[in-house]
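Form 12-C: Joint structure prediction
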Amino acid sequence: MNAGQAVSGKRQIFGTEPFDGDLAMRGYALNAMCYSFNTKDNRDAFAADEEGYMAKFELTDEQKAAVRNRDVLAMLDAGGNVYYLAKLAGILGLNVQDLGALQTGMTLDAFKAALLSHGETTRRAAA
Amino acid sequence: MTQVAGGIFTSHVPGIGNAIARGLQQDPYWKPFFDGFNPVHEWLAREKPDVAVVFYNDHGLNFFLDKMPTFAIGAAAEYRHEDEGWGLAFQRPFAGHPELSWHIIEQVVASEFDPVTCQSMLVDHAVAVPYELCWPGTEEFPVKLVPIAINTVQHPLPSPKRCFDLGRAVGRALKSWKGGEKIVVFGTGGLSHQLEGKRAGFINKEYDHFCLDNIGPNPEALLRHDSLEIVELAGSQGVEILNWLAARGALTGDVVELASNYHVPISNTAAATVLFENREFLPA
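Section 2 - Result
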């Protein structure tokens, strides 16, 4: 298989990398670690010893560095899937607005304001 | 005679679950979304469905990437929600309907679909939040659940047409069911939103209105875009509209919109709730 062709054949979407087989392979260890965070005992174990917990799940050096640096874009580059990363974000005290601000380089207030700038309520009811 | 009475289509943002847990329904931020459920509550009180068939996507509670089904149908006697990583678990269990589940499985396989079958299955916020929205505060949920999970997480995703056709196959299965129950179909998720990457916070109201205007009278219009085009139009998570398309496919009668509520933003999401009546067995 020619990986270059496979990559070049992907649809380009601004600021978006669909989570496909390449990312699923690259991110497996990181996502497996995050999946374990469904259990509170595991969240506590990570909080108590991040390095030991990452080693147990055999994260790659790139994944470990991204987690150490709280660098969400680097976690995505390392194959992290946002639904699993959201479980890690919870441990770090970050909600999806915090994540949005971190990824877009905006302040939290600016990110929230950008969402509110779309503000609309449209309601229909049958007669 | 078994009757598919209608469809409830709604966003399932986890933050809605938090707002419910904290009693924020009347809070000015949340009220415009929760008010969209008033007509749903009236309809449910009037129709009293016995069964809910719910098309949704799992976000890493029941399924991990080690085994990721494109389509999965629950066939358990009971389902539970559990902690998804942020400490919130809704306590009311979801009674299942394994006999109907297996009938649906038999029928959709006969229609050449190949779902994973799950006799044990956790359901995440994509089922739990819509249930909490529809039946707040009841002792137990008044419907039996058949959950149908669609992969909207790991590409390649099923095509919009495949999801719609799966829904149609489920709709045919429901019509041939001899149980005589009244059934409501759910499609959960959407509308436009994107959580990750430099495009995080993406909202596309034009595409959302296109979906809201067409999903009832002309669902085929949504099939003109493939799944990656929907990612581009609706955001990485906006592709959850696939669940709506499957649910719409299961409404095989004369579909009439009774209520629609579109409210932006809820968390990072353009949220929507739509109630359809499915006039299949009702007198004209």
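Section 3 - Comments
The beta strands of chain A are 120-125. Residues 29 and 59 of chain A are 5 Å apart (CA to CA).
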